[in-house]
Amino acid sequence: MNEQSKAAPDLDRATSSRLLKMAVSGPRRPIDDLIARLERSDGEAWLRAAFRSSPFVDERIDQGTLTGGGATVEQLVRLKERSKKLVTPGADEDTRLRGLLGYFVSIAAAVAQHGQFISAKSPDDVRAALTDLAGVIPGPVAEILARASFPER
Amino acid sequence: MPTSDVFAPTMRTWILDRDEAGKSGRDELNRYIMEVYAPALKVYYLGTSYRSYWDADDAVSGFFVEYLGRAEYFREWQKSGMRLRRWLMNGMCWYLKSRWKAEIGRNKGAVMPDDSGLMPAGEDDTQRGEFVRAFVRAARELARQECDRRGLARQWEAFTLYYVRGLSRRLIGEQLGENDERVWVMILTGKRHFIKAAREVLLRDGVREEDIDLDIGDLL
User: Fold this and answer.
1) Are B32 and B25 in contact (CB under 8 A)?
2) Mutate which of A5, A22, A67 to test chain B, going by most B C-beta atoms within 10 A?
3) DSSP code of residue B177
């Protein structure tokens, strides 16, 4: 707070209220654990390793396949189903997080690259999760999440 | 039991760390307090029956000089369990009374202003509005500094253009020379840093992590 020269101009109350409302977190969601993992200092290395592990290797889908649009809808549905099986009570934390990653990335790729929504969950809830994930996930996969979570403008 | 063990870890805030970090820490802390809280304290002062005695800038800076210099001021705040904004308003109230007695009250015929409403149970709507603006201003500044530090200045700019200035993604993309997907990722990255900063500012005000959503609801 001591770099006065760059300080932003003051905002009116309505704009300030709208911005402060963004900071309401709501109840903790499973994706918040994944976001927290990606925000750790080794988050990028963890992500690279995750794409080389189950569930991605089981479907022969790597990061390049995903970002290049090389996965079919059927493959993405299978990836999503495999991912769900990793997010079970008793699974170790790393496995659970890879399951969450596979789950949300498969849904995002299906929307962004095939225009198909492959989840039974509420589109609004899924979009909110993809939006949050897009803001923290490093590398080109972020752009798939971005395209799947575009707002109106 | 040491004081630090009495309170939840989230109460052991950035403020107390600075308070214990010697002169430079205390200077940094006082600068932060003055930048964030002065505008709202001026509004509070202008709503009191003492408002005709001193200029608002003079009253608030006088309060800061007298109270922020006290060695135990922030430790006492921690023990109080109050939001810092409330603690400062209460301090301002005592300061005004004491200053009035010292400067005005000794004059013959001086009548002490009506104290009713001087220390209200909560903030009124105008004060809440000032605190909202103050916290958002502080959060934007913290987020901007953090984005600069991490090499994310363009992400911060994208966030500001979209959420503050209301530009479309397309226009931001043209301005920053990025495609639509990239622009959205940049906006969201800036947003993530703003959200963290806003929650940090509330933690510094003494709000517990688990109460932040409720506190925002109260302020809005």
Assistant:
1) no
2) A22
3) T
Express each pLDDT in A111-124 by its tens digit.
Answer: 999 999 999 999 98
What is this model's ipTM? Answer: 0.83
CB atoms within 10 A of CB A61: 24
Mean confidence (pLDDT) of chain B: 86
- The first and second tokens of residue A1, run together, are 């707070």
**Cα distance between residue B118 and residue B93, in whole Å:** 6
- Kindly identify which residue of chain A lies nearest to residue B193, measuring between CA atoms: A135
Contacts of A140 in chain B (CB under 8 A): none
Tokens of A124: 């609004």
Selecting from A6, A132, A147 the residue whose C-beta is nearest the C-beta of B181 gives A147
Cis peptide, bond prior to residue A140, ω within 30 of zero: no
A53: left (phi over 0), alpha (psi -120 to 50) or beta: beta
Euclidean distance between the first and the last CA atom of chain B, given in angstroms as a whole number? 37
pLDDT tens digits, A67-107: 888 899 999 999 999 999 999 888 899 999 999 999 999 99
